[in-house]
Design a protein that fits this description.
- The protein has a single domain, classed as 3-Layer(aba) Sandwich (Glutaredoxin), CATH 3.40.30.10.
- Helices cover 41% and strands 27% of the residues.
- It is built from 3 helices and 4 strands.
- The protein has a 4-stranded mixed sheet with strand order 2-1-3-4.
- α1 packs across α3.
- The longest helix has 17 residues.
Length: 78
C-alpha cells in the first residue's frame, strides 16, 4: 500500500488534490492511504512553502497547485 500525505490548510485545492489521488488509485486498482496534514509546522518540516504539497512514502513529490493527472498516475504506479 502506498502512503500519500496531502499538505495544506484544507483549502479547495488541497481537497481536490486528495480526491484526484484517490480516484486515480481506484482507476488503476492500487490501494492507497491518504492522510491530510494541515498543521503548518508539520508542512514546513517537509520544506513545502506553497500548498498543496504531496508526499509519497515520506518523499516530497509536489508543491504548489493541483498536480497533473499524469503526475498522479506516476506516483500511484511507482
Amino acid at each position: 500500500m502506498k502512503h500519500f500525505k496531502v499538505l495544506g490548510s484544507g483549502c479547495k485545492n488541497c481537497a481536490t488534490t486528495a480526491d484526484l489521488i484517490e480516484r486515480k488509485a481506484k482507476d488503476l486498482g492500487v490501494e492507497v492511504e491518504i492522510e491530510k496534514i494541515t498543521d503548518m509546522a508539520a508542512i514546513m518540516g517537509y520544506g513545502v512553502m506553497s500548498t498543496p504539497g504531496v508526499v509519497v512514502d515520506e518523499k516530497v513529490v509536489h508543491a504548489g497547485g493541483i498536480p497533473s493527472d499524469d503526475a498522479i498516475a506516476q506516483w500511484v504506479r511507482s
